[in-house]
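Justification of computing resources. Each target in the renewal requires a structure prediction run like the one illustrated here; the chain below, 196 residues long, is used simply to show the kind of job we budget for.
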Amino acid sequence: MKKLFIIFAAILFVACNSSKEKTKMDENTSTEMISEKSKEKINDTVPYEDSVMLLGKANRKGFEMEAFKDWFNTGYETYTVDSEILDKLKPLLKEVTITLFMGTWCEDSQRETPHFYKILDETNFDESKLTLITVSEEKTTPQGLEEGKNITNVPTLIFYKDGKELGRIVEYPIESLEKDMLAILSGKEYKHAYAE
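Resulting C-alpha cells:
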C-alpha cells in the first residue's frame, strides 16, 4: 500500500509539473507568435548564386550588408544630381508616397536605386513615405507584396498621391530620374519604357 501511494504521488507530481511547464510553454509560444506577427521582417535575405539577395520588405539599412554595400555606396557617391530639377521636385515630393520594387540581383536596380536614394536625400524627402520591396528574379515576394501592382521589370518606382497612382518609372528613366520624376509629379504626360 505504501509503495502504491508513493507511485501515485510521483505520478501526480510529474503530471502537475508537466502541465505547469506546458502552460508556461504555451504562454511563451503565444507571446512569441504575437510578437512575430507584430514584427514584420525587414531586410530578410535568401541564398542567391554565391551570395544572398534581399527578399520582401526592406529599407536602406539592408544595403549596408556586405553583399550590397559596394554597388550601393559607389552608385550613391558617384551620382551627381540635377540641382536645377531638384528645386522643382522638392515641393512636389512633399505630397506623395513612393513604392520602389527592386532586385538586389538586378544590374538596373543596382544602378538606379542608389541614384534614387541620393535624389531623395537631396530633396529632404521623408523616408517614412517610401516603401522598399525587394523581389526575386520572378518579380515575386513570399508575402505577395507585388500582387496587383503589375511589376514586369525592376526597378519600378511608383508614385502615389492620396492613394492614387500618378505614374511609374520602369527599369530605367526615359530622360533622367529627376526629369522623369518631375514629369510624373507635375502631371505632364509621361510614358515609362514599357508603356503601350
